[in-house]
Every structure is written in structure tokens, then in C-alpha cells.
Protein: NADP-dependent malic enzyme
Organism: Paracoccus methylovorus
Amino acid sequence: MSDDNTPRKSRITREEALAYHLEPRPGKYDIVASTPMATQRDLSLAYSPGVAVPVQAIAERPETAYDYTVKGNMVAVISNGTSILGLGNLGALASKPVMEGKAVLFKRFADVNAIDIELDTEDPDEIINAVRLMGPTFGGINLEDIKAPECFIIEQRLKELMDIPVFHDDQHGTAVICAAGLINALELSGKKIEDVRIVLNGAGAAGIACLELVKRMGARHENCIMCDTKGVIYQGRTEGMNQWKSAHAVVTEARTLEEAMRGADVFLGVSAKGAVTPEMVQGMAENPVIFAMANPDPEITPEEAHAVRADAIVATGRSDYPNQVNNVLGFPYLFRGALDIHARAINDEMKIACARALAELAREDVPDEVAVAYGRKLQFGRDYIIPTPFDPRLIHVVPPAVAKAGMDTGVARRPIIDMEGYVQSLKARMDPTAAILQGIHARARQAQARMIFAEGDDPRVLRAAVAWQRGGMGQALVVGRESDVKDKLEAAGLGDAAREITVVNAGNSRYLEQYHETLYTRLQRQGYDREDAVKLANRDRHVFASLMLAHGHGDGLVTGTTRKNAHVLAQIGMVFDVTPADGAVGITAVLHNGRIVLMGDTLVHEWPEAEDLADIATRGAHVARGLGLDPRIAFLSFSNFGYPISERAVKMAHATEVLDARKVDFEYEGEMTVDVALNPTQAAKYPFSRLTGPANVLVVPARHSASISVKLLQEMAGATVVGPILTGVPQPIQICSTSSTVSDILNMAAIAAGRLGQVK
Ligand SMILES: NC(=O)C1=CN([C@@H]2O[C@H](COP(=O)(O)OP(=O)(O)OC[C@H]3O[C@@H](n4cnc5c(N)ncnc54)[C@H](OP(=O)(O)O)[C@@H]3O)[C@@H](O)[C@H]2O)C=CC1
Ligand SMILES: CC(=O)C(=O)O
Ligand SMILES: [Mg+2]
């Protein structure tokens, strides 16, 4: 967290942006089957002849398409690329990354399936016809980045023609978030919407819709002035006009934006970068509200606005300033609520309900996890008038408000009867794994650790180190030779990063003699003479990096991508106590299909006995708590509670007795099979079990079974694997594997920085 309470800006480079889109596969999403498709029987059900049955059912009763197909959870994101963000008309194909991104946001934030469709035409009639014809496929249509005034014609006509929601997000999504922010900004400035003078700059898709919604919420027509590239839209103006602009023309003497802004209470900008000057802001009324929402750069930056008006309440479209007005706060939840009532439309009442729900949420106490994710304390006030996009409450607060408004206004085909049940189902709907990874990174960002990347000879490590430094996570200290690091960065297209990261080695370290002394002192009674210690410190990067950490010349250490775990652990052991006897344990997090399980010991104990297994469970519980989970430990075997009897299973049962004697404060049970541990139906056969739900920490009998299980899940199921997290040691050290990707290395660095594995 920064002391001045402003979020730290992270710089994203062109290379990073391109690599993000290129890897691991081109683009940003895949489509996965949700039904089994393995056997001849599956094939007969999914396709011919079985599929004929739902076909006939839908032909007889069209509304059953919501039951037998993906229609009810499927949205089309449609653009022709004529107004891409604030970049202008770059065509249909160039808009595809934005539309794919939007599809992924639908999924990430509201579990709505969405696909992008780019239409290569600027003719409104062609777009209308194409979209109308694809109506049967979708539960809703999200239009995006289509320029005004064509967007108004297209949306209006499609609304008339189609029986599903048609929603142009740049218009209404923006308007809804802007309205939510305005409700709260006016509350804070002590003004009423009926009284305020509003100036809106940008009479396009977003601008017209914002002003319309603000007027529907009580702003008076004669108090609102709209401007475009030609200045004020006054009654009688003829140049650059259209019917949508005319509807907002007013009688006024003002002709320029500057004149319009004199004495205004509110400025809303959806125009272009730099359209507002400090002088314009200076002349506004007391406690001015300034929403500079142009993307990617605002009309005026918060710094510039605050420099001339300390009393201003400022919002922008950007995530790196407080008060982000971005439609990502709206469209996922508006569509979630609309889809869940099989809505025919998204109407004004649903939009206003969404705006009010968002405004109210911002006034509530903010959960700690949200504050951590955002990197600063959030409390309703001038710097926090709108919830942040990563607020986990949005999914269960906003869609019910939208659905209820839809039901009250008669657009629901299937009203929700049990609202409380609906709220619970929304809570369960979201994949907790994304939030967990995000939490790890947020804590790391807050720590601003100097991270030692020991293997500067590996291009993956170098890319991770650059991402660490440029991503605002802290300082990257790379152990390697300067010329080699430079060459490898050049080869990775990151040549200019050589100046940004810090390269450290035995040749340029000021502390080498201290390191030699430390190592010699530690190893002299293990048969090492001074010369051996000097060579080891100078030549072995794992040992050198460990010495840096031991001397406080870095805050955390990541290594293990170039050599096998056992070797790396042994080298680190030259400097630190990391043996089983020292309490070290490896815990691996496996994330898949919305579930997370921790598995141990995946690193340190080769063949643990009952006491060791109890230690592993305790370390697993510690990591689980660090990730925000309530630990439930299962000691695994091939038998359940004593049957069949075997020596290997007995030690697992004994581990529970060791924990009984230790009186630990977490749930544990065993021995049991993995299905009993994870599947409630199987678990129900053992009603005496002390676990109150599926296990989330699995203690396995030995390291080989741990390794086999984790790698099987990774290879066969495509699970995300984080770890092994080295825990039980007093230092923030994490060991990657030789197959680690750049993201894996970054995850491990974030775990080290967040000190997730460390004993207190
Ligand atoms: N924060 C958010 O969530 C969102 C932000 N936006 C941003 O809003 C902006 C507009 O988007 P959108 O409405 O879709 O685009 P449109 O192309 O539909 O409209 C743009 C409008 O802005 C006007 N304009 C452009 N430059 C200036 C200027 N320097 N001074 C005054 N008016 C200007 C144009 O005037 P004229 O009519 O004279 O050509 C036009 O009326 C973009 O920057 C976009 O990124 C959009 C949606 C959501
Ligand atoms: C956020 C968005 O939709 C835009 O800037 O166009
Ligand atoms: Mg847009």
C-alpha cells in the first residue's frame, strides 16, 4: 500500500500485452463441453438419435429451449469495430480482442457464456438483419463499440424485432455505472439531482445514454448542457447535428465547453483524452463532480483536476485511479439477472435498479479481501463512490435487484419464486479459484518485496522477473551474469528491461566476504574448509541467492526451474534449515473446475510416519487459512476407517490420533479414500465422520503418491497447480519445478512475497 493512499500505477508494455494474447494459445478463451462425451451411449444421447427428442420438444414448446440448450446462459458480443474504446473506427477484425475480452469478463464475473461476433459492415440494415437472424441461439445480445448515431438505429430496431434483451453496453452499461457513481457523488457533495447543473461532453453512444438515464433519475432538461466536437448543442444549432443530439439541445448563451462549465456542478466526459483543461475545472461550482470517463485516457487526469480544485470528486474509466467508472461493473450482472428470469428485454427499470444496487453497495462496509485486492483501505467517501470490479458481493447483490425489477415490470418469462434461494445459488456459482489467485497477488503487491530470482540464466525466470518489476509487485533481483541476462532478454524481445531489473552475482556483490564467512561458519563441521565454502558461494546460484536472503539483501527467494527439486532443496539447505526434521513441508494447491484442494507433502517428506503426517496436516491447515479457506483435512489411503486393514493405511489412522492428542483447532479425519474425502454422497456413508464438508486439504501417505496425484490431475484434467509451497520454514523461499511456466514462477514469487508458507 502506498502511504499517500493513491493506488500504484502498473506499467503494461506492448510486449506483455501481445504475449498475454498469444499464449498459451492465440486469443483469450476456449469452449468446453459440459456433458460427458466419452462412450457410444454418450454420442447417441448428445447427437443422433437422442438429440431428436429435445428438438421435438422445442418445436412444440419454444420456451423449453431454455431448458435443453445453452440459449439461456449464452450472450453474443457483437461489434463492427466503428468505435473501439476511444481508438476510433479500426474495423471489425481489429475489434476482436476487445470483444473476446468482453466475453471472458462475462464468464469471469457472472458465469455467463459469451462469444464474440464481429460483423464486417457499417451498414445498419446489414447488422440489423444479421443479428435478428441469430436470435434463436442466444439469451441476450450485447452490442459493443458501434459508433453513434448508427448504434441508436441498430439497437432500437433490434429491440423491436427480437424477443430477448438487446443492450448496447457503451450506451447503457456506461450510463448505469455513471448514474451509480453520480448518486453517491451528489450525496457526498450535499446536492440534489433535481438542482444540479450538468455538462456532458461527447454526444455519442455513451454520452446520449448517460444524459438520458440521468434525466430519468430526476435531472432537469434545462439544467443539462451537452457538447460535442463542435461545442455546445444549443437550440437552433445545425452543424453536426442528428435527432438524438437535438433531443438534448437547450436554450443557452454558452457556445463552448469552457463557457458551459462555468459554475456547473457536474461534468460527465465520454469524449476524448485531454478535452478538459484545468481552467475549465477551476470555474466549476463548489464540490464539483468530475467524471472523466474517456478510455484509455481520461478528459482530465485526477491529478490535474485536484491540483486546481481540492474539493473535486473525480472518477475516471481507469483501474489505476480511485473511482473507476467502467461498464464491467454493470453488464455481467445486468445480463445475469436478465437471463435468470428468461427476460424479453433489459428495460430502464432494470438499469436503474442496477445503478441503485451498485450505489448502495459502495456505502456498505467493505470486506477486507476487497481492500487487500485493491491495495488500499476502502471506505465510502470521495475516493470510493463506486464498488471495485473485484468485489465478490457484486454477483449476489446486483443480479437479484435486476431480476426483481424485470419481474415487477413484466419482462420475465420465468419469474424467480425463491429469491433467497436465488441469492444462495449466485454465491455458489462463482469459481473461487480466480479469487484465491487474485488474493495471493494482491497481498504480494502490497508487500512490495525485493524478490530474488536465483536462476537468471533461464528465459522464463527473466520474463517473470521483468513482469514482477513492471507489474508493480516490487523490485526484481536476478542472480546471473549481466551479459548473459542482457542477451537472453534481447532474445525474448525485452531488451529495454535490462536497465529495469537488478542483476546480482558474486562478481558485483559488495557483500561477498560476509557471505563466505556465513557459509563457512555453517558448514565447517560438515567437512567443508574455507576454500570449499568460497567456491560454493561464488559458483552455486541457489546457495548465493540463499545467502543474499539470509543477509536481508532481498525479501524473498524463488528458484527451482533449472534443477530438480531435491537438488535445489539440498543447496538451499547449505544456508537454511529446510529438512523434515526442521519442520519443512511442501503443500501443493490444485485448482480445477471451481474447486481447490491442497495436497501434502509434495516436497520434503519421502515416507512420513504418523507424527510427520500430523505435522503435514498442521502445515496444510496453515496454508489453507492463508488462502482464506476453513481447513478440513483428510488423511488419504485406499481404505476407509480401518477396512481393508493394511500397515500403510494404519499409519494414516494413527495420524488422527496424534492430532487428537495435540488438540488442534481444525477439522481432520481419516483414513479414507479420496472419493469419500471429496464427494459428499460417498461421505454420507460414514455419518460419524468429523468433517463437516468436503475436505480441502489432502494428506497423502508418501511423496510418490503426492507427486503421482498432482501430476495426474495436471496432465489428465488440465488442473492449475500452484506449488509445492515450501512451508514450515522461517524464510520466504519458494521452489518451482523444471516445467514451470512464467505464470507459475510469478505465482511462486507472489506466494513468497505474501509469506504464505512461512511459520510465524
Ligand atoms: N468508462 C467507460 O465505461 C466507457 C467509456 N467510454 C469512452 O467514451 C468515449 C466515447 O465512446 P462512444 O460514445 O462509444 O463513442 P462515439 O463514437 O459513439 O461518440 C463519441 C462522441 O464524442 C465526441 N467527441 C469526440 N472527441 C471530442 C472532443 N475532443 N470534444 C468533445 N466531444 C468529442 C464526438 O463528437 P461528434 O459527434 O462531434 O463527432 C461524439 O459525439 C470513448 O473514449 C470511450 O472509450 C465508452 C463506453 C464506456
Ligand atoms: C469500456 C468501454 O466499453 C469502452 O471504453 O468502450
Ligand atoms: Mg466499449
User: Anything to note?
Assistant: The chain has a mean pLDDT of 93. The two ends are 22 Å apart (CA to CA).
